[in-house]
Amino acid sequence: MHLPSTAPLSAGPVQPDRLPDVVAGRIRELILLGELKDGERLPPLDNLLTQFGVSAPTMREALRILEAEGLIKVQRGSIGGALVQRPTPQTAAYTLALVLRSQGTDKGDVVEALSLLEPLCAMQCARLSNRKSTVVRELRKINAASRELLDDDEVKFNDTMTRFHTTLVQRCGSDTLKLLTGALGSICLADVRNWVTSTSAHGHYPTAAERLPSIKVHERITDLIYAGKDVEVAAEMTAHAKVTRQHIYGGGDPTELVDPRTVRRGH
C-alpha cells in the first residue's frame, strides 16, 4: 500500500528535546514520585553539574523551568539553593482559580459546579465496600461534634459543618474526583468564612434551632451512605447543596469574579 503523495509523514524534521527540558524532566519525575521529599534541598549547583554532566547555563535553565512550575523554590543570597515543593491540592486550587479568573469566570459558576460534584462524591462513598469502618465512622464523629457545638461559637460550629463536606469528598475513593471537588471547595471557602464573620458580627448567624436541621441533613446523608444507597444519597446531597448555596450566597453577588488571592490567603 502506498501513501498518496499529498499526505506527508511529517510536518518537518523531528526535533530532539532541549537539554534543559530533559534535565528538568528527570528532576520533575523524582519530585512527583516522592524520591525527592517536600522541603528537601537539592544538592549544590556543582554537585548537580557533576551528576547530570551538563553546563551551568543548562542546569540554571532547568531549575528555572521547575521554579516556574512551582516544583522548587530557589533561595537566593548567602543561603542559596533550591527547595522541593511537591504539588498539593492547595496549589491545584490556586492554579485553577488563576485559570478561572483569566476566563472571567464568576463565583456563581464555581458554586454551581461544586453542587454537581459533591453528590457524585457522596455516591462514591456509598459504593465503598469499607464505608462503614471508614467514611461513615468519621462522618458520625463530625456530626456528634456539630451537635455539641449547637450553642457554641459560630466559627467553630461552621468549621465542623464544613469538615463534614471536606471529609465526604476526601474519602470518596476517587483521587481525581476528590482533587477537582476539593479545589473548587477551596475556592468557595473564603466566601463561606466571610459569611460566617459577617453574620456573626451583626448577630444574624443562625440560632441553635436554625442550625439543627442542617445537622439532621448531614446525619441522613451519613445513614444513606451506611446503607449503600448511592442514588438516594446523591439526591439528598443535591437538595442540601441548593439550600446551602441559597443560604450563604443569597445576600452576595454570584456574578463577582473568582479571586485567586482569597484561595492563597485561605491556606
Q: What would a concise description of this structure say?
A:
The protein has 267 residues and is mainly α. The chain has helices spanning 19-32, 45-52, 56-68, 89-102, 107-127, 135-148, 154-170, 175-201, 208-226, 230-249, 260-265; strands at 72-75, 81-84.
Helix content: 55-70%
**Which strand order does the major sheet show?**
1-2
- Helix/strand order: HHHEEHHHHHHHH
Q: Please identify the structural class as seen in this structure.
A: mainly alpha
Q: How much of the sequence is in beta strands?
A: under 5%
Number of structural domains? 2
For the record, the CATH class of the largest domain is Mainly Alpha
Number of DSSP helical runs: 11
* Average pLDDT metric: 88
CATH topology of the largest domain: Four Helix Bundle (Hemerythrin (Met), subunit A)
The counted number of beta strands is 2
Distance separating the two termini: 60 Å
Using only C-alpha atoms, the radius of gyration works out to 24 Å
pLDDT < 50 stretches:
none
Examine the secondary-structure arrangement and name the CATH architecture of the largest domain. Answer: Up-down Bundle
> In one word, what is the shape?
elongated
Largest sheet: 2 strands, antiparallel
Explain this structure.
There is one protein chain. This protein folds into two domains: 19-84, Winged helix-like DNA-binding domain superfamily/Winged helix DNA-binding domain (Arc Repressor Mutant, subunit A, Orthogonal Bundle); 90-265, Four Helix Bundle (Hemerythrin (Met), subunit A), CATH 1.20.120. Helix content is 65%, strand content 3%. It is built from eleven helices and two strands; from the N terminus they run αααββαααααααα. A two-stranded antiparallel sheet has the order 1-2. The longest helix has 27 residues, at 175-201. 27% of the residues are buried.
